[in-house]
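call fold(seq) -> tokens
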Amino acid sequence: MIYYRDLLLVLLSKEFKVRYKSTFMGYAWSVLHPLMLAMIFSVFFRMFMRVPDYTLYLIAGLFPWQWIANTCTGATGYFLGNAGLIKKVRFHRSMLVLSSVFNDSIHFVCSLPVVLGFVWYYERTPQWSWLWLVPALIAVQAVMLVGVGLAIATCNLFFRDLERLTSLVVQMLFYLTPIVYQPDMLPPSYHWVLYANPFANLILCWHGVFYGGGVELLHLAAAAGWAIVLAAVGAGIYRAKVWRFAEIV
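ret:
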């Protein structure tokens, strides 16, 4: 365990250095991107959505979605971009995925004060339940994205078209997830989409924390269920193909 801990810390440090190498604004870009999207959607959609405090609703969904999008699109290079390490060093390859997901999770945690600033601006009252809900949702999202990251990173070694396909799927899922609209705006016959989309219930939980004042247990249970399923699928794909990594990369 000490070996894995040290390896994870080294890989995490490498991810941070590579991410901010030769950048002037550094971490600020992680905050500016969802803020700019929120501003654009708020300006153009506020008059149509009729959602109270629409900017806060957007912020509550866009920041966790950025973590999802960064992990999914970056997963195509988790193994492919570390070919030198995989060929020359013997270590648990899944640590490359874990370090990248933890890297994105740290950025998300560091962006929470921005979200809380909007909560305060719109005069919403923080709840004591946030003390366990926020860490629980972070853990659920991390488990979910580790599974997704393992699956995408592994499959991309054998099907290189997956890199472009992943970007298209992430963009499609953005509009299928209730981030810029509320779920009750969907016709009742389409509500099944919320449960078929693995990220929809997770975003609904984040909306419930920062915007709605509470999380429905059904959404939390659905998000946790999807996290277990995706983690199991990702681990299964990784274990089935990890023995070929060195000859493929």
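The CA atoms of residues 116 and 210 lie 8 Å apart.
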